[in-house]
Amino acid sequence: MKSEGLNTKDRKEDMDCIFCNIAEGKTNSRVVFQNEEIIAFDDIHPQAPIHILIIPKKHIQSLNQIEDNDLPLLTRMLVTAKTIAKQVNIYDSGYRLVINTGKEGGQVIQHLHLHLLGGKQLRG
Ligand code: AMP
Ligand code: ZN
Q1: Which residues, in sequence order, are bridge partners of residue 118?
Q2: Which atom of ligand 1 is nearest to the CA of 41?
Q3: C-alpha 43 – ligand 1 centre gap (Å)
Q4: Is 111 a catalytic residue?
Q5: pLDDT digits (tens, 9 = 90+) for 39-85
Q6: Residue 67, domain member (yes or no)
């Protein structure tokens, strides 16, 4: 449901978004990369020695809400993952990128994020 007359940032559900708060510096995180549109930080409950989340600074709920004009941003998120993989020395050893989407996809935080995992042999 759309909130008439309010922009995305003014909507209540977005004000409560933990990842929006991280992007705005209102919630602490260990930031490993940021520019005008993307921020990346350590996952608070790492599933591998390297577990970094790459997010758009603007609130996008999930991959399902990606529109054609977001495609350059999505591409830059992927390229950012590769850049960070180099930065944290898993570029050559290998890494995994995951985007959980929706309930059965295991998405817990309703702000699009790309998991970058590596630093050990990943299974399954
Ligand atoms: P997902 O299940 O794909 O929605 O993943 C959400 C991820 O966000 C999980 O891996 C959490 O450990 C991580 N997470 C939740 N809160 C924070 C936080 N404040 N800082 C960093 N990572 C977080
Ligand atoms: Zn958000």
Answers
A1: 50, 95
A2: 21
A3: 6
A4: no
A5: 999 999 999 999 999 999 999 999 999 999 999 999 999 999 999 99
A6: yes
